[in-house]
Backbone:
C-alpha cells in the first residue's frame, strides 16, 4: 500500500512489486503477522506518521495485536527481509507523482453505490463521490465503494436482505471487468461495525459508536476563515476562540502507575520520578480513581516531541494491551503530546510536571549547567521544561532554575508571576534535594552579578521586550495556520500552541501583541506566502483594540531565523530543530544583520508587485528590488506566459525541481 499526500494523506493499494516503490513516499507491505513500513528517504513527516498509524491499526484491529510492525528508514535500499517479502528487487524511482495531484486524482476515482431491493427489484444506484459522509451508509442496504485501483469494498449493513448481500458481492466483482482494473485489485467485504482502517479513510469524520472522545477538548483547531473569490473577512479572526472547558472525572488525587517505553517494552517508573518526563521518550500512565462506588480507569500515553515513530506507535499499542489484558477493555485511553497536556493530566501531578532533554535512545551530552524554564498561571498548569544552557534561553516573562555544580540560581524575570516563583522553589525539592539554602541564590532580572553571566557562558540578548515584562496579559499571543492545500486559501487558529505546531510546509501568523509575524516554512508555496502577507495587514487593520500597521510592527520571518521576541512566546523553544543550535545573535554574527531573512510585510508585498522586463532580469546586475531567488515573479503576466509557455498558476503548481529546470532554461535562475 502506498501512503502519499500533502495534507489529506491517502493509502492506496498498488502492485506488490519493487516497481511500485519510489523514494518520495511511504509504503506498507502487509505480510500477515509481519507488517513492514518502508519510509522513502524524501517522504514527508506526515506521510510517515500516517503510515505508522495505519500499520498499528491493522495490527490492533485486524490481527488482534499479534502482528509485528517493522519500520524501515536507514536501510531503505538494502533491507533483505523487506525485499524478500516483496518478492522482487531492483532500481527504486527517485520520486512519484506530485502529492497534491495524487490527492486530487485519488479523490476523483472514489464512487459509492447503493444496492437495494426495497422497490421489489434489485437496483444499484450511485449515491456519492469524492468526499463521502459516514451518514450515507444505511444499515438497511448494502453499498459498493469503488476506490479505483485501490480496491473495491462491499459494505454489508446489519439489516440488509440476503438477496442484497449476494448481489452486492457479484456486482462488485463485475466492477473489475467493467472498469478494466488490474487482476491484483482487491475486492474486500466489510460488515457494519467491523470496518477496516483502509475503508474508513474514504469517509470524512468517521467515528464509531464506542470510540473514545476523551475528557474534553485537549487541543482544538477550528476553521475560522476560508479563501474564495470574495474579499477575505479578517474580522472573523478577532472573534474569541477559547479552549473549551474540560470535563474532569475527579480532582486528580487517584492512584498512579507509570511506565516508560524502553526497547519495545514497558519499564515501571518509581514513585519519586512520577511527573518527570524526557523529550525523547514515551510513557504509559494508568490512573485509577473511584466514582459512584466503582473503580474507574484512565490510560494516558504521553509522547515526547523528540521520540521516534516506533516509540510513539509502541506507546499506543502498549496502552491498548494494558487495557485489554489487565482491565478487560474498561479504561478510557487518551493520547497526550508534549506541550498539549490536558488539565486533568496536569492535576494528577499536583503542579509537578518536569520535562527534561534526552531519553533512553536520545542521549544529551552532559553539561555542567542545567536550565529549566518555569511557566504557568496556577498551581495546576505550571510546568518546568529544560532549555539550552545559555543566556539566550532566558525570558523576562518566566522564572528559570539554573543548576550548576556549586549553586542553584532562581532567576526571576520581570514579568514572572508570583505563582511561578512559588512553584520554582517546589521544583528544587524534586530536582536538587541535596542542596542546602546556602547553595541557592535568588536573582532578580537586572540585578545579576558577573558570576551569573559567566556560568551561562556570557551575557546575550534574550526575549525581554515590554510584552514579556508584565505579569498580567489581557491579550494572549495567538497563532494562525495559513494553507491552500485544500484548493482554497484557509486560515485556522491553533489553540494552546507549541513549537511543534509550526508546520514547515506552510505559513503561520503569530500575533505577540507588540508585533505580528508572518512565519514562512521552508516548504511553503508562493500562493501561501503572498496571501498570508495581505492577511496579516488586514488582520491588524480590523483589530477592535485599535492597533494598526503604524503602531504595530508587522514582519516576515523565515524558518530557522526567528528573533527572541518570536521564540520567547513558546515554552522551551528548541534552537536545534531548525537553527542547528545557533541563537539569533549567532546568526547575526554569521550572516550579518542586513542579510537576515527578516523583512517588513509591506516591503514584501511591494516586491511582489514590482514588474520588470525580461531583458532587465537577464542582466548580471538586476534592478534594485528584484528577489534573486524568484526573478520570475517580477515578470508581467503577458511576458511570463510568452517565456514559460504556461500561466503563472500552472507554473506554481509544478514541483520545485521542475520549476528550477524551467527557470534554468530561460536564464532566470
Residues:
Amino acid at each position: 500500500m502506498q501512503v502519499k499526500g500533502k495534507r489529506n494523506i491517502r493509502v492506496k493499494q498498488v502492485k506488490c512489486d519493487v516497481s511500485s516503490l519510489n523514494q518520495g513516499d511511504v509504503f506498507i507491505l502487509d505480510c500477515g503477522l509481519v507488517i513492514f513500513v518502508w519510509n522513502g528517504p524524501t517522504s514527508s513527516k506526515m506521510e510517515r506518521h500516517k503510515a505508522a498509524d495505519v500499520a498499528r491499526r491493522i495490527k490492533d484491529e485486524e490481527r488482534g495485536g499479534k502482528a509485528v510492525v517493522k519500520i524501515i528508514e536507514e536501510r531503505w535500499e538494502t533491507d533483505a527481509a523487506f525485499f524478500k517479502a516483496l518478492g522482487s528487487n531492483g532500481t527504486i524511482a527517485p520520486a512519484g507523482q506530485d502529492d497534491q495531484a495524487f490527492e486530487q486524482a485519488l479523490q476523483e476515482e472514489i464512487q459509492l453505490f447503493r444496492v437495494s431491493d426495497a422497490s421489489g427489484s434489485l437496483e444499484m444506484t450511485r449515491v456519492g463521490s469524492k468526499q463521502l459522509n459516514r451518514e450515507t451508509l444505511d444499515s438497511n442496504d448494502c453499498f459498493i465503494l469503488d476506490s479505483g485501483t485501490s480496491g473495491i469494498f462491499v459494505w454489508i449493513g446489519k439489516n440488509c436482505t440476503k438477496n442484497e448481500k449476494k448481489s452486492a458481492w457479484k456486482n462488485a466483482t463485475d466492477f473489475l471487468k467493467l472498469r478494466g482494473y488490474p487482476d491484483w485489485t482487491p475486492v474486500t467485504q466489510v460488515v457494519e461495525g467491523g470496518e477496516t482502517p483502509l475503508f474508513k479513510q474514504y469517509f470524512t469524520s468517521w467515528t464509531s459508536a464506542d470510540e473514545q472522545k476523551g475528557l474534553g477538548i485537549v487541543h482544538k483547531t477550528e476553521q475560522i476563515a476560508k479563501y474564495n473569490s470574495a474579499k477575505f473577512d479578517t474580522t472573523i479572526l478577532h472573534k474569541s476562540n477559547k479552549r473549551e472547558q474540560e470535563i474532569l472525572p475527579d480532582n486528580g488525587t487517584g492512584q498512579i502507575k507509570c511506565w516508560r517505553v524502553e526497547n519495545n517494552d514497558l519499564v515501571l517508573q518509581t514513585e519519586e520520578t512520577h511527573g518527570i518526563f524526557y523529550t525523547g521518550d514515551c510513557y504509559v500512565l494508568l490512573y485509577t480513581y473511584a466514582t459512584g462506588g466503582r473503580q474507574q480507569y484512565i490510560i494516558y500515553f504521553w509522547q515526547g516531541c523528540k521520540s521516534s515513530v516506533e516509540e510513539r506507535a509502541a506507546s499506543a499499542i502498549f496502552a491498548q494491551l494494558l487495557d485489554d489484558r489487565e482491565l478487560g477493555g474498561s479504561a478510557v485511553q487518551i493520547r497526550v503530546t508534549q506541550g498539549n497536556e490536558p488539565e486533568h493530566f496536569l492535576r494528577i501531578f499536583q503542579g509537578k510536571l518536569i520535562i527534561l532533554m534526552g531519553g533512553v535512545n536520545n542521549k544529551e551530552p552532559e553539561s555542567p549547567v542545567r536550565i529549566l524554564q518555569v511557566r504557568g498561571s496556577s498551581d495546576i498548569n505550571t510546568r518546568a521544561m529544560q532549555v539550552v544552557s545559555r543566556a539566550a534561553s532566558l525570558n523576562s516573562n518566566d522564572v528559570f532554575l539554573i543548576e550548576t555544580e556549586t549553586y542553584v540560581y532562581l532567576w526571576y524575570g520581570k514579568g514572572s508571576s508570583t505563582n511561578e516563583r512559588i512553584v520554582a522553589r517546589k521544583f528544587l525539592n524534586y530536582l536538587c534535594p541535596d542542596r542546602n539554602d546556602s547553595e541557592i541564590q535568588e536573582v532578580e532580572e537586572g540585578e545579576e552579578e558577573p558570576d551569573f553571566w559567566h556560568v551561562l557562558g556570557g551575557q546575550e540578548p534574550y526575549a525581554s521586550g515590554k510584552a514579556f515584562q508584565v505579569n498580567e496579559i489581557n491579550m494572549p499571543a495567538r497563532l494562525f495556520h495559513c494553507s491552500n492545500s485544500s484548493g482554497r486559501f484557509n486560515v485556522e487558529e491553533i489553540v494552546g500552541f507549541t513549537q511543534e505546531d509550526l508546520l514547515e510546509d506552510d505559513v503561520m501568523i503569530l500575533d505577540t501583541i507588540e508585533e505580528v509575524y508572518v512565519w514562512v516554512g521552508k516548504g511553503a508555496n508562493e500562493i501561501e506566502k503572498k496571501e498570508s502577507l495581505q492577511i496579516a495587514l488586514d488582520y491588524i487593520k480590523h483589530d477592535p483594540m485599535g492597533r494598526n500597521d503604524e503602531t504595530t510592527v508587522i514582519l516576515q520571518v523565515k524558518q530557522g531565523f526567528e528573533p527572541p521576541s518570536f521564540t520567547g512566546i513558546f515554552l522551551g523553544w528548541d534552537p536545534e530543530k531548525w537553527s542547528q543550535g545557533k541563537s539569533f545573535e549567532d546568526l547575526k554574527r554569521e550572516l550579518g544583520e542586513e542579510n537576515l531573512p527578516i523583512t517588513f510585510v509591506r516591503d514584501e508585498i511591494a516586491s511582489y508587485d514590482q514588474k520588470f522586463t525580461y531583458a532587465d532580469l537577464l542582466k548580471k546586475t538586476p534592478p534594485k528590488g528584484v528577489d534573486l531567488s524568484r526573478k520570475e515573479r517580477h515578470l508581467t503576466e503577458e511576458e511570463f506566459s510568452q517565456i514559460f509557455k504556461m500561466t503563472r498558476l500552472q507554473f506554481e503548481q509544478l514541483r520545485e525541481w521542475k520549476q528550477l529546470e524551467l527557470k534554468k532554461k530561460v536564464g532566470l535562475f
Remarks:
- The CA atoms of residues 289 and 613 lie 73 Å apart.
- The radius of gyration is 28 Å.
- The first helix runs from residue 45 to 62.
